[in-house]
Amino acid sequence: MSESIILQTEHLGILTPDGAALLSDVSLKVPKRQMVHLVGESGSGKSLTLKAVMGLVPSGFSVSGTMRLSGEPFAAGQVRGRRITMVFQDPGASFDPLYTVGFHIREVLVSVRGLSSDSARVETERLLEVVGLRPSDASLYPHEMSGGMKQRAAVALALAPEPELILLDEPTTALDPTVERRILSLIADLVEHVGVSVLLVTHDLSVVSRMGGLVAVMYGGMIMETGEVEEVLSAPEHPYTIALMEAAPFGGTVRPIPGDVLPPSLRTGCPFHNRCPEATDICHGTVPEVRRHAGGREVRCHLR
């Protein structure tokens, strides 16, 4: 495997206790010092993919496939909170309300990186400055912070172990546009200047278009199309990516995707077949293979 790949999942799948497939054949690469966006409608399997990487899949669900970190297979429990960290959709979930933000960061610095108390205090203040907060904000409790401040503090906490990869689950949800821009700028700076890799889950294609990097489009627990952001958004190839672009409010006419997402227990063939205007009989009964196109684009479709 190339040394430039930080995370690679191969044929990752998750089954519910009754055998319904929530994820199927999810093969994904996150290169070193790059950002990969995981996009799709709610229920596509984006957040579940992050939970699988972190080893947070609910008890009773079965996980198949392999995952590699810097080329080596790994158990999530060995790397979670150390080499891989995660910022959850609700940043408040990262903090115990009984303790200050600084306490949380110092605990990670002492327990994971082995810093002394004094060194951890200095490093905590530095990390807060990296994410655009004041050193004095270390003394604040989570409830004393705004949503944007808590999101920045959650990123500082995720940076504390010096991870190779940070997972971000809808990091700008419920933030106003000004704060959203600041958070996204912060994430881009971390990739460029700190050198961390990022896997970012979002349903907002405008975020993807502004951030650049790579994009993987998910639907029905499968990855349907991957490629460079600019190429995928300017010339989408999979019918679902095309429909997703047409449904995005980019200033033109918004066309909602007709039909409903099939529940996992009823999925056969391509999971998008019941909503796809181009679907044929083979789409209904046979799962399409991933096809590699020019320029590294990958598309899972019988017709492309």
Explain this structure to me?
The protein is an alpha/beta fold. The protein folds into 2 domains: 5-83 and 163-300, P-loop containing nucleotide triphosphate hydrolases (Rossmann fold, 3-Layer(aba) Sandwich); 92-162, no CATH class. 31% of the residues lie in helices and 23% in strands. The protein is built from 10 helices and 12 strands. It has helices at 46-54, 76-79, 101-111, 117-130, 147-159, 177-194, 205-211, 229-234, 239-246, 281-285, and strands spanning 5-15, 21-31, 35-39, 62-69, 72-73, 84-87, 165-169, 197-202, 214-219, 222-228, 290-292, 298-300. The strands form 2 sheets. An 8-stranded mixed β-sheet has the order 6-7-8-3-9-10-12-11, with helices on both faces. Strand 11 and strand 12 form a beta hairpin. The protein is globular. The two termini are 27 Å apart. The mean pLDDT is 93.
